C-alpha cells in the first residue's frame, strides 16, 4: 500500500471516529490517553477478571525486576487502562509490562520473557547511560568499545547485534544509514527514563522487522501534579562532570515534562599500551553528550487527547582509531559527531465507555553522524557523513470484545532513507497486525498475534507469536512458554551501497533474514513471595543470514548464513528483611554458525550477576552489583587474528544514597572496585577503578 493511500485511510478512519463522539463529551480526566499507552499502575480486577566498528562480530535492587509477585488482576479495559504515573519518583510500577502486549499487563499474565528496569532501579545503582543499566539483564551481552560514548552492541540470546529492535516511547530509533541498521545505545542517557523493558525472543508478530532477538522498549517519564523541579550535579574520575535537570507537572488536562542532561568524560583510558608502538603517545577518549527531551499531553475530555514526545541528542566522541599496515592505534584521535532527532505525535480517541481505544500516530527520526579521521602525511581526509531518516504513520486499536478478551490491531507505514555524499537510497514498508489477549480464568492467560508486512523492495513476510501462561493452584507456580517467528529486513547499505574501488557492490536482490524461536520455563514463589526463583530454556534457529561472498575479485552480500542459539536463563530473588534483599542471575548461551560449524563471536557461554540492596537506616540506601562474564571467542582489535579466546572477568560496583532532607539527596558510587583489567571487545579497555559523587535537589 503506498504511503499516500495509507495516510488517506488513516485520516478517513479518524474522521469517522470523531463523528461518532458524543456531543456532550466535555468532562476532562486527569490521567488517561498517553503516548504511547505507558502510564501504568497495577490494574484492579475488572468484572471478569557495530555497525560502524562492530559489524565483523555479527553472523538493583534485586527487588523484582521482571520477576515480580504474580498479580491476578485482569487486563484492564483500554479506557480504564492501568493508569500509570511514570512521572512519579518511582518511575513506574514494578511487575507491569507494556512492550510484551502493547498495553499495560501484569507480568504474571505474560508468557514471554521480559525484564523490567524502573527509574528507581537505575537511580539506586546510579547508572547514567543505558549500556550501563543493561549490563546485568539476563540473556543480554552488552559490548561497548571503550568508555562512555563508545560504539555499543547488544546481543540478545546469542543473536546478532542488529537483531534487537530499540524503541523510545514507541519511536523506532534504529539508524537507516548504519550498515546494519542498529542503534548505538551508547548515546542514550538515563535521566528522563521511567522504565526499560527488555523483551526476549522473536517479536516480529507484533513489532515487525528487526525483532529476531527481541525488543528493548524505553519509556520516559510523564509530568503530573504541582510543578516539580529536580537538579542533579555529579563529578568524579576520568574528568567526569554531569548535570541533569527536569521540570514537570500537570494542570487540568495538560501535563508536561522538560528534561536536560549533560554528560562529560574528558579522559577515559581505552587503548591498551601493549598495542601501541614504542614512542607513540596514547590518547584517552573524550566524550560530551547534551540531551534534551520533552513529553506533552492534553486531555480535552474523556474521549479525546493529544500527545507529543521529542528528543534531541548532540554528542561528540574523540577516540583512537587504527591506521597503517600492519594496523596500529593512531597517534592522533578521530572525531565522531552525532546529532539525533526523534519526534512522535499522536491523537487518542476512546469510544464505547473506554472499551475501544484508538491511537493515530506519526513519528520521525533523523540520525546524522559525521566522522573525521586525523591528518596523515597526505593531508587531512574528507569527513564522512551519513544521514538516516525515517517517517512512520500508524494506527492502533484496542477493543475489549468481552470481559477477558482484548483485541489489539493496527496498520502502519514507514519510509526510510540513507543519505551520503555519493548515495541516496530509499525503501518503505507497510504492515498490519492482529493480536488477541485472553484471560480464560484467573490462572490461564494466552497472548497470540500475527503480522503481515509488505516491503517495497523484497515483498511479503508473515510472522506470528503465541505465549500461554498457567498458574498452578496451591503452589502458585507460574508455567510459561512462547513460540514465534521473526525477520530482519536487508539494510539500505546492504541493498544499494557499493565501493567499486574495492570491488564491492550492493545487492538489491537480498531477502530478509528469518528466525524461528521458542522458550519454556517456570517461576516459583515461596514463603509468601519472599523468595522467588525461575528457569527459562530458549532455542532460536536463524536462516538466510546476510554475509559477504567473493568471486573473481568481486564481492557482494548474499543470503547464505545460518545460525542457532540455545541455552537457559535462571534467577533467584530473596527478601531477607524489609531492609535487605538481593538477586542472583545466570545465563547460559550456546551460539553457533551452522555453516562454518564455529562458535559465534562475542557470545559468552556463561554470564552471571549478583545485586543487593541494604537500608541500614531509613535515610541511607546501599547497593552493590557483581557482574561475571565467562570466556568468549573474539577477534583482535583489527581482526588480523580473526578468532581468539578471551579471559573471563568480573566487575564489582557499589553505590550509596543518603537523604539529607526531603529536598536534598547526596550520593556516591565506586565502579570496578577492584580495578579489574578488562578488554571487551578485545583491544578496547573498559574503565578501571572510578569514584563518583554528587547531589540531587528537588523542590
UniProtKB/TrEMBL annotation:
Residues 246-673 form the TonB-dependent receptor-like beta-barrel domain. Residues 109-215 form the TonB-dependent receptor plug domain. GO terms for cellular component: cell outer membrane. Residues 86-104 have a biased composition (Polar residues). Residues 36-104 are annotated as: Disordered. One of its GO terms (molecular function) is siderophore uptake transmembrane transporter activity. It is a multi-pass membrane protein. GO terms for biological process: siderophore transmembrane transport. It is found in: Cell outer membrane. Residues 51-61 have a biased composition (Basic and acidic residues). Gene3D superfamilies: TonB-dependent receptor, beta-barrel domain, TonB-dependent receptor, plug domain. The keyword Transmembrane applies. The keyword Transcription does not apply. Residues 1-25 form the signal peptide. Keywords: Cell outer membrane, Membrane, Receptor, Signal, TonB box, Transmembrane, Transmembrane beta strand, Transport. PANTHER family: HEMOGLOBIN AND HEMOGLOBIN-HAPTOGLOBIN-BINDING PROTEIN 1-RELATED (PTHR30069:SF29), TONB-DEPENDENT OUTER MEMBRANE RECEPTOR (PTHR30069). Belongs to the TonB-dependent receptor family. This is Vitamin B12 transporter. It comes from Enterovirga rhinocerotis.
Amino acid at each position: 500500500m503506498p504511503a499516500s493511500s495509507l495516510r488517506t485511510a488513516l485520516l478517513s478512519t479518524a474522521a469517522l471516529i470523531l463523528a461518532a463522539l458524543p456531543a456532550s463529551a466535555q468532562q476532562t480526566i486527569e490521567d488517561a490517553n498517553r503516548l504511547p499507552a505507558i502510564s501504568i499502575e497495577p490494574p484492579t480486577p475488572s468484572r471478569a477478571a557495530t555497525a560502524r566498528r562492530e559489524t565483523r562480530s555479527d553472523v538493583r535492587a534485586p527487588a523484582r525486576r521482571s520477576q515480580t509477585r504474580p498479580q491476578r488482576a485482569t487486563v484492564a479495559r483500554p479506557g480504564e487502562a492501568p493508569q500509570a504515573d511514570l512521572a512519579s519518583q518511582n518511575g513506574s510500577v514494578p511487575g507491569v509490562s507494556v512492550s510484551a502486549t502493547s498495553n499495560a499487563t501484569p507480568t504474571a499474565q505474560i508468557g514471554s520473557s521480559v525484564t523490567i528496569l524502573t527509574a528507581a532501579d537505575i537511580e539506586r545503582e546510579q547508572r547514567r547511560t543505558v549500556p550501563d543499566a543493561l549490563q546485568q539483564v539476563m540473556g543480554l551481552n552488552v559490548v561497548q568499545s571503550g568508555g562512555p560514548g563508545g560504539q555499543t552492541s547488544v546481543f540478545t540470546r546469542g543473536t546478532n547485534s542488529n537483531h534487537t529492535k530499540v524503541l523510545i516511547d514507541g519511536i523506532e530509533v534504529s539508524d537507516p544509514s548504519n550498515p546494519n541498521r542498529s542503534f548505538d545505545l551508547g548515546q542514550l542517557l538515563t535521566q528522563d527514563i521511567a522504565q526499560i523493558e527488555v523483551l526476549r525472543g522473536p517479536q516480529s508478530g507484533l513489532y515487525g522487522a528487526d525483532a529476531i532477538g527481541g525488543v528493548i522498549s524505553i519509556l520516559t517519564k510523564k509530568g503530573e501534579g504541582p510543578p516539580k523541579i529536580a537538579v542533579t550535579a555529579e563529578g568524579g574520575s576520568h574528568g567526569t562532570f554531569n548535570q541533569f535537570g527536569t521540570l514537570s507537572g500537570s494542570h487540568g488536562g495538560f501535563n508536561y515534562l522538560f528534561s536536560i542532561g549533560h554528560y562529560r568524560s574528558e579522559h577515559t583510558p581505552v587503548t591498551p599500551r601493549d598495542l601501541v608502538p614504542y614512542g607513540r603517545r596514547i590518547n584517552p577518549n573524550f566524550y560530551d553528550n547534551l540531551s534534551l527531551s520533552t513529553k506533552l499531553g492534553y486531555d480535552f475530555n474523556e474521549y479525546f487527547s493529544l500527545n507529543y514526545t521529542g528528543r534531541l541528542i548532540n554528542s561528540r566522541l574523540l577516540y583512537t582509531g587504527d591506521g597503517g599496515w600492519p594496523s596500529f592505534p593512531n597517534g592522533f584521535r578521530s572525531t565522531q559527531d552525532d546529532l539525533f532527532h526523534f519526534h512522535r505525535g499522536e491523537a487518542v480517541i476512546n469510544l464505547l465507555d473506554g472499551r475501544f481505544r484508538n491511537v493515530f500516530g506519526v513519528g520521525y527520526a533523523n540520525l546524522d553522524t559525521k566522522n573525521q579521521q586525523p591528518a596523515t602525511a597526505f593531508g587531512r581526509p574528507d569527513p564522512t557523513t551519513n544521514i538516516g531518516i525515517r517517517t512512520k504513520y500508524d494506527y492502533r486499536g484496542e477493543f475489549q470484545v468481552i470481559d477477558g478478551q482484548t483485541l489489539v490491531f493496527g496498520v502502519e507505514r514507514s519510509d526510510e532513507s540513507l543519505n551520503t555524499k555519493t548515495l541516496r537510497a530509499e525503501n518503505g514498508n507497510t504492515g498490519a497486525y492482529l493480536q488477541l489477549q485472553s484471560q480464560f480464568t484467573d490462572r490461564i492467560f494466552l497472548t497470540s498475534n500475527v503480522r503481515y508486512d509488505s516491503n517495497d523492495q523484497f515483498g511479503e513476510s508473515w510472522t506470528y507469536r503465541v505465549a500461554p501462561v498457567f498458574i498452578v493452584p496451591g503452589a502458585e507456580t507460574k508455567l510459561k512458554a512462547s513460540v514465534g517467528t521473526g525477520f530482519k529486513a536487508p539494510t539500505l547499505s546492504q541493498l544499494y551501497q557499493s565501493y567499486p574501488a574495492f570491488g564491492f557492490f550492493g545487492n538489491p536482490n537480498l531477502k530478509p533474514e528469518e528466525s524461528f524461536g521458542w522458550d519454556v520455563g517456570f517461576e516459583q514463589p515461596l514463603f509468601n513471595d519472599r523468595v522467588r526463583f525461575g528457569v527459562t530454556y530458549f532455542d532460536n534457529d536463524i536462516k538466510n543470514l546476510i554475509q559477504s561472498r567473493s568471486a573473481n575479485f568481486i564481492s557482494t552480500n548474499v543470503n547464505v548464513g545460518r545460525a542457532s542459539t540455545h541455552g537457559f536463563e535462571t534467577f533467584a530473588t530473596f527478601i531477607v528483611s524489609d531492609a535487605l534483599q538481593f538477586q542472583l542471575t545466570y545465563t547460559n548461551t550456546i551460539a553457533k554458525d551452522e555453516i562454518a560449524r564455529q562458535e559465534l563471536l562475542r557470545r559468552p557461554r556463561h554470564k552471571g550477576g549478583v545485586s543487593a540492596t541494604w537500608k541500614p537506616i531509613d535515610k541511607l540506601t546501599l547497593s552493590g552489583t557483581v557482574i561475571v562474564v565467562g570466556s568468549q571467542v573474539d577477534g583482535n582489535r583489527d581482526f588480523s587474528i580473526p578468532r581468539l579466546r578471551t579471559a573471563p572477568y568480573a566487575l564489582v560496583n557499589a553505590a550509596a544514597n543518603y537523604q539529607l532532607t526531603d529536598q536534598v539527596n547526596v550520593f556516591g558510587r565506586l565502579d570496578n572496585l577492584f580495578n579489574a583489567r578488562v578488554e571487551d571487545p578485545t583491544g578496547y579497555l573498559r574503565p578501571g577503578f572510578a569514584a563518583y559523587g554528587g547531589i540531587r535537589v528537588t523542590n
